[in-house]
Amino acid sequence: MLNLYDRKREIQKVLLITLFLNLSVSFVKIIYGWLSNSVAIYSDGFHSLFDGVSNIGGLIALKLSTHPPDKEHPYGHRKFETVFAVFIGVMMAIVAIEILRNAYEAFFKSEKPELDNNAFIILICTLAVNLFISTYERKKGKELKSEFLIADSAHTRADIYTTLGVLLSVVITKLGYTIVDPIAGLIVGGFIAKEAFKILKEATDILADKAVIDKEKISEVVSECYDVIECKDIRTRGATGHIFVDLKILVDSSISVSQAHEIANRVENLLKDKFPDIVDVVIHIEPSEKTKDFPQNSKD
Questions:
Q1: Maximum CA pair distance of the chain?
Q2: pTM for the full model?
């Protein structure tokens, strides 16, 4: 497993690569869309531009979130990544609203899109770049357990589908059906809005401390420790690669404090072995008058 510094360096490398690629394709699409009066291509260009903006936000979040725990932030600063995942979702929502507005206005404008073969070249190249970015960023996001990279890859994946739609609209527009261009813009806007909602929901679940591991699964693992009579009040929170667990275990009331401490350590090790994303386990020990049907001091 990478240490904090190496993880930060790897995520930073991914963000810088994707930033350069996103800005490159976005400027090409925006300029061509503006020159050709194509709402679909112009809107798709701004979609790609906000991919680059989200990469910049990710670099800022990375600097903040990788600070080690301190007196005022004993749980660390990892949630800054989640905060900037929210930022991505909000930016996507803003882009969706702007695209929908431009597409709606295009229905009433007299200018028609003037597309040539360069439109196909630009969109096909953009499609290839976005496919690379989405695959690369998602793969690295899973390897580095970064919810920001995974969210950003989802954003870029939306680019792939929308660019395919825009490419289809260009074909139809060149056949003389110019009304398809603003219709494609509306579809792009709707798709982006859907992706924005998904990202915002996942990020707010983390910020609201939604349970991340099923209680029954935790209980099953804890029950492997023979000296634990009962497990209750299980709570989990956090994000991928950074999960906190707290629970209560009931043990034989006749054992010593040191024996109870040893049991708690075994429970913690069992949980961390079974769920590698767990970084901390808080165990509260309570006495129980019940006993199990096997020897109290047997080993797990």
A1: 87
A2: 0.62
Look up residue 52 and give its amino acid: G
Instruction: Give me the pLDDT at residue 294, please.
Output: 47
Say which residue the tokens 């936000």 belong to.
Answer: 57
CB-based burial label for 116 (10 Å; 0-12, 13-18, 19+)? exposed
pLDDT in tens, 163-200: 887 788 888 887 777 788 778 778 877 877 887 888 88
SS3 string of the chain?
CCCHHHHHHHHHHHHHHHHHHHHHHHHHHHHHHHHHCCHHHHHHHHHHHHHHHHHHHHHHHHHHHCCCCCCCCCCCCCHHHHHHHHHHHHHHHHHHHHHHHHHHHHCCCCCCCCCCHHHHHHHHHHHHHHHHHHHHHHHHHHHHCCHHHHHHHHHHHHHHHHHHHHHHHHHHHHCCCCCHHHHHHHHHHHHHHHHHHHHHHHHHHHHCCCCCCCHHHHHHHHCCCCCCCEEEEEEEEEECCEEEEEEEEEEECCCCHHHHHHHHHHHHHHHHHHCCCEEEEEEEEEEECCCCCCCCCCCC
**pLDDT tens digits, residue range 255-276?**
888 998 999 999 999 999 989 8
Asked if 291 contacts 229 with a C-beta cutoff of 8 angstroms, the reply is: yes
Sheet of strand 278-288: strand arrangement: 230-239, 242-252, 278-288
| Residues sharing a CB contact under 8 Å with residue 193, sequence separation 6 or more, in sequence order | 92, 93, 96, 97, 100
The amino acid occupying position 13 is K
298, two tokens: 């047997």
- Dihedral of CA atoms 46, 47, 52, 58 in degrees, nearest 10, equals 140
